[in-house]
Design brief:
Layout (H helix, E strand, L loop, with lengths): L6 E6 L3 H9 L5 E7 L3 E3 L4 H4 L10 E3 H4 L4 E11 L4 E6 L5 E5 L2 E4 L4 E2 L7 H4 L6 H18 L6 H7 L1 E5 L3 H21 L8 E5 L11 H13 L2 E4 L4 E4 L3 E4 L4 E3 L2 E4 L3 E2 L2 H5 L10 E3 L11 E3 L4 E3 L8 H19 L14 E6 L2 E5 L4 E4 H14 L3 H17 L7
Parallel strand pairs: 1-2, 1-8, 2-5, 8-19, 10-11, 10-16, 11-12, 18-20
Antiparallel strand pairs: 3-4, 5-6, 6-7, 9-17, 13-14, 14-15, 21-22, 22-23
Helix pairs in contact: 1-10, 5-6
Amino acid sequence: MKSTPKKKVVVLGSGFAALSFLKNIDLDLLNVTVVSPRNHFIFTPLLPSTTVGTIEFRSIIEPIRSVRSNVEYFQAECTAIDVKKRVIRCEGQFDRKEFKLNYDILVMAVGASVNTYGVPGVKEHALFLKELSDARAIRQRIVECFEQAAQPMVSSEEQDRLLHFVVVGGGPTGVEFAAEVHDFLEEDIRRIYRELSAKVSILLLEATEHILSTFDAALSDYTARLFKRQNIQLRTGSLVTKIDAKNIYLKDKTRIPYGLVVWTAGVGPQPLVKTLTLEKDSFSRLQTDGFFQVSGAQGLYALGDCATPRGQNFPATAQVAQQEGKYLAQMLSKRERGLPVKPFQYRHYGMLAYVGSNRALADLAAVKGKGFSTWLFWRSAYLTRLVSFKNKVLVVFDWFKTLVFGRDISRF
């Protein structure tokens, strides 16, 4: 008697949803292939720490090939999906040559892209903070600004511009990046660039009336007060209308010179999602049922930031993607065994954010924490959630190294 061949599962992406899926899928029941232009997973909650050298880049990444053995991987980008024939078209990341893959089950976990809201000049002049390459570009630009400002022929006015760091977007990423730059200034810049440290300024722009709008209002207010004490300027209700090579323009006609501008103002759909003529919500996310099956596309599942179950509006956070990836892996494994399955149920465990000066926020169901003790909790919580033991050791070592020796300011 012949055994039934295992179904072929193709996973698009290498973020939290995809990683969680890979770690929990039963490879004895299904053959799994991963397609992603990035061959590693990034622990993005600690990405802001890498922009100033608090943590090194490789300490928060894990190669996809190391997550599970017996999983096929192609470093490529999926450019089109034929939902009727169950075929995807891909382009190799290096030679851009096309190839096709058949699938029985397709798992879309492609995440989201940066949303510029059509503001002129953002793509050309602003830096983003989604990938490791983004963090490295920011780190290089920060050091570049200081080295340029230190040149003898640079005017005082030009020094003020170069050392004015602007963050657009008052969500967790923008707040944490501003906090990391503040720590860099207080703990390292004042010692290394003594003659320039007084000229450094940090500005956080937020289009709405409050930063950290997804957090408890009391924690948001605490952060605003702390930023004021840290001399981080905060401007709410400030809508950016244009960015050029040296200035940011606001809706109220204000012109703000800058040396570095980091755009963390929102997320939008990936190009692949835009090409699909399937049902989407008002945020252009794919609509699914409670099992993450995409309507009108048999065998197609979508999860993470690129999709949402119908009638739900889950936040675009790591914990949502992790829970969805784990659920889908276990659900598909149960179906292969002929076992009953239940729809996905999200459990909210709360949110954490670093706000500088060894202070953090914890917006949990039972506790609304802030301050130094919450910072210790923040560090321990993220440390336990890192993918591998190697990552845990490297991050602890980086924290210790920064405490003892300070942050590295080499530009290469």
